[in-house]
Amino acid sequence: MARNRAFKQQWIDDTNAAVKDTGILLVAHYKGLTVAEITDLRIKIRAAGASFKVTKNLLAKRAVAGTNYEKVSHLFKGPTAVAYSSDPTSAAKALNEFAKKNGKLVLVGGAFGNTVLDKAAIQQLADLPSLDELRAKIIAMLQTPATRIAGVLQAPAGQLARVFGAYATKGA
C-alpha cells in the first residue's frame, strides 16, 4: 500500500513539474481507443514536440493544483488524457489531426497560460501556423527585399553595358 502511494505521489510530482514548464495544456477524452491507437497518438504527439499522458482524474487534479492550469481541473471526468507542450500550436495540431481521423478522441478543453480554452479555441489554435512555419515566412520576407535590391543594383550596370555596346557599334 505504501509503495502504491509513493508511486502516485511521484506521478503527481512529475506531472506537476512538467505542466509548470509548459505553454499549453489540453484535455481530451479517449473512451473507446485501443492501446495501439493510443500508442500511435503518443508517437504523433512526440513527433510534434509535445507530451501525452493518460491520467487518473484525482491524480491529475492534484498535479495541476498550484499551476496556471488549475482552472481546467473540472475537465477531469471520465477517461481523460492530457497533452502539453511549450509550443502552443504543436500539441493542438497533433491532437486535432488525430481527433479528425479517429472520432473516439474528443477534445474537451484546456488552458494556454492563464486563458481557458474551449473546443473551438483549440481548433483555432490548431489552424495557426507552427513556430517553424512562421520563422520560415519571416526569413522569406526578409530575403525578398534583399534579392530585389540586388536585382535593382544590377539593372543599371546592365543598362550601362548595353548603352556602351550601342555606342561602340555606332562608332564602328
Model description:
The protein is of the alpha+beta class. The chain is built from six helices and five strands. It has helices at 2-20, 35-47, 57-64, 88-101, 119-127, 131-171, and strands at 24-29, 51-54, 80-85, 106-112, 115-117. The protein has a five-stranded antiparallel beta sheet. Strand 4 (106-112) and strand 5 (115-117) form a beta hairpin. The mean pLDDT is 82.
Write the layout of secondary structure elements.
Elements: H1 2-20, E1 24-29, H2 35-47, E2 51-54, H3 57-64, E3 80-85, H4 88-101, E4 106-112, E5 115-117, H5 119-127, H6 131-171
Helix pairs in contact: 1-3, 4-5
Features:
single chain; 172 residues; alpha+beta; 5-stranded antiparallel beta sheet; 5 strands; 60% helix; 15% strand
Summarize the structure.
With 172 residues, the protein is an alpha+beta fold. Helix content is 60%, strand content 15%.
Mass-distribution shape: elongated
Give me the count of strands.
5
- Low-pLDDT parts are none
Give the proportion of residues in helices: 55-70%
Tell me the fraction of residues in β-strands, as a range: 15-25%
Structural class: alpha+beta
Report the end-to-end length measured between terminal Cα atoms.
105 Å
Biggest sheet overview: 5 strands, antiparallel
The secondary-structure element order is HEHEHEHEEHH
Total helix count? Answer: 6
Radius of gyration, CA atoms, in whole angstroms:
27 Å
Mean of pLDDT: 82
